[in-house]
């Protein structure tokens, strides 16, 4: 049975790994919260629930893979990069003349899909970690991840309501928001090893 020190060390490690693998989510979540303020889509609860659903799917896939029940060649996870690219291109093509930033993602499942696509590389980090954890430490990791998803959403909502961020997205949102999604997708494809 692990001691308190071991569990605190597991919590610290989990927080560090979560922060390192999800720092890019702050940008995506902030853009989504700004879009929600301007267009009403996605709704804030869609963003939060979608983030939980997406991170939950990534962690579940990692735990299943760590148990040896799922083997997906790493390069193929790069195909998930096509989702944010498609969303960004669609937003560029649907551009309107009003001042509101485009609603690149409009639903809970859309947010979850972007979270999964953006976090596909997280699986490569999470699998060996979950393979090495005992059940108590694994539970600590899951609790820390759940807590930090809430913290990430709160930070992004705060950033998304900051006047300077809102003004920036309002001025350049029609190009900036789709460009962020296209860049995320291109990065996923480029770093996955799928493309030569």
From TrEMBL:
<feature type="transmembrane region" description="Helical">
    <location>
        <begin position="105"/>
        <end position="127"/>
    </location>
</feature>
<feature type="transmembrane region" description="Helical">
    <location>
        <begin position="172"/>
        <end position="195"/>
    </location>
</feature>
<keyword id="KW-0812">Transmembrane</keyword>
<dbReference type="InterPro" id="IPR004676">
    <property type="entry name" value="Cd-R_transporter"/>
</dbReference>
<feature type="transmembrane region" description="Helical">
    <location>
        <begin position="47"/>
        <end position="70"/>
    </location>
</feature>
<keyword id="KW-0472">Membrane</keyword>
<feature type="transmembrane region" description="Helical">
    <location>
        <begin position="76"/>
        <end position="93"/>
    </location>
</feature>
<dbReference type="Pfam" id="PF03596">
    <property type="entry name" value="Cad"/>
</dbReference>
<feature type="transmembrane region" description="Helical">
    <location>
        <begin position="139"/>
        <end position="160"/>
    </location>
</feature>
<keyword id="KW-1133">Transmembrane helix</keyword>
<feature type="transmembrane region" description="Helical">
    <location>
        <begin position="12"/>
        <end position="35"/>
    </location>
</feature>
<protein>
    <submittedName>
        <fullName>Cadmium resistance protein CadD, predicted permease</fullName>
    </submittedName>
</protein>
